[in-house]
């Protein structure tokens, strides 16, 4: 669910971001949608040790091209400078916040990763499957344990739709659900919200990632009903 804007027209001139156009900048970054960010390498290095560096012979106007759109980079790069104001992450639309979190993880902006994760956790009751996916990507067991019970509120058909195309993650989800509810919930009730009251139970990481019973049979059975 990354924020993916339309690509710039072939003849469209790149534009400079007005907030990142310092005259003494020594690094130029180009977003996927044609916006240039002129920043200072010393600040970039202090925030990330793996951010793509320009070639040693490059000039400040020779951009490093990244796959992220300007909306994401604008927030990411704001955090390489110590002076406020920084963007209020809690005010961002969820799709943008999620994309910033993914980019911060990708480029190892660890302070921003931490702040994004705090904001993501606050939205776990509304977007649990996206945050579950993020937690698995990050290997973050703390978020995983907190968000997994929220996914159970939505029932199995919603889980199948949300995790379509991610068979391994769905296998882990249904394995944990089967273990937790194998004695309390009859399988035929799952399609009708049998998990709706499960949110107060802790979903242990070991449970979520364990293999269990006839998962292929569950997939085949329920995919025919949605």
Features:
226 residues; alpha/beta; four-stranded mixed β-sheet; 4 strands; disordered C terminus
Describe the structure.
With 226 residues, this protein is α/β, with parallel strands linked by helices. The chain is 44% helix and 8% strand. The chain has ten helices and four strands; from the N terminus they run E-E-E-H-E-H-H-H-H-H-H-H-H-H. It has helices spanning 41-47, 70-78, 94-106, 110-121, 128-138, 141-152, 155-162, 167-181, 205-208, 215-223, and strands at residues 15-21, 27-30, 35-39, 64-65. Strands 1-3-2-4 form a four-stranded mixed beta sheet. It is elongated. The two termini are 21 Å apart. Residues 1-7, 183-188, 194-213 and 222-226 have low confidence and may be disordered.
Q: Report how far apart the termini are.
A: 21 Å
> What global shape is seen?
elongated
Proportion of residues in helical segments: 40-55%
Query: What is the H/E string?
Result: EEEHEHHHHHHHHH
Number of distinct beta strands: 4
Structural class, by secondary structure, is: alpha/beta
Task: Characterize the biggest β-sheet.
Answer: 4 strands, mixed
- Show unreliable segments: 1-7, 183-188, 194-213, 222-226
Layout of strands and helices, then pairs:
Blueprint (H helix, E strand, L loop, with lengths): L14 E7 L5 E4 L4 E5 L1 H7 L16 E2 L4 H9 L15 H13 L3 H12 L6 H11 L2 H12 L2 H8 L4 H15 L23 H4 L6 H9 L3
Parallel strand pairs: 1-3, 2-4
Antiparallel strand pairs: 2-3
């Amino acid at each position: 669910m990354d924020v993916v804007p339309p690509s710039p027209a072939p003849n469209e001139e790149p534009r400079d971001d007005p907030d990142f156009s310092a005259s003494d900048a020594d690094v130029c970054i180009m977003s996927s949608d044609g916006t240039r960010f002129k920043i200072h390498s010393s600040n970039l290095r202090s925030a990330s040790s793996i951010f793509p560096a320009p070639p040693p012979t490059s000039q400040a106007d020779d951009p490093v091209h990244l796959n992220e759109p300007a909306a994401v980079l604008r927030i990411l790069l704001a955090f390489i400078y110590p002076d406020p104001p920084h963007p209020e992450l809690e005010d961002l639309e969820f799709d943008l916040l999620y994309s910033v979190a993914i980019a911060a993880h990708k480029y190892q902006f660890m302070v921003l990763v931490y702040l994004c994760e705090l904001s993501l956790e606050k939205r776990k009751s509304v977007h649990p499957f996206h945050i579950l996916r993020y937690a698995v990507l990050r290997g973050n067991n703390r978020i995983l344990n907190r968000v997994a019970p929220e996914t159970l509120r939505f029932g199995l058909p919603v889980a199948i739709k949300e995790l379509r195309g991610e068979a391994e993650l769905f296998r882990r989800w249904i394995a944990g659900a089967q273990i937790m509810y194998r004695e309390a919930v009859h399988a035929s009730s799952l399609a009708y919200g049998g998990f709706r009251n499960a949110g107060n139970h802790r979903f242990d990481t070991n449970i979520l990632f364990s293999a269990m019973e006839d998962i292929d049979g569950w997939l085949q059975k329920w995919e025919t009903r949605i």
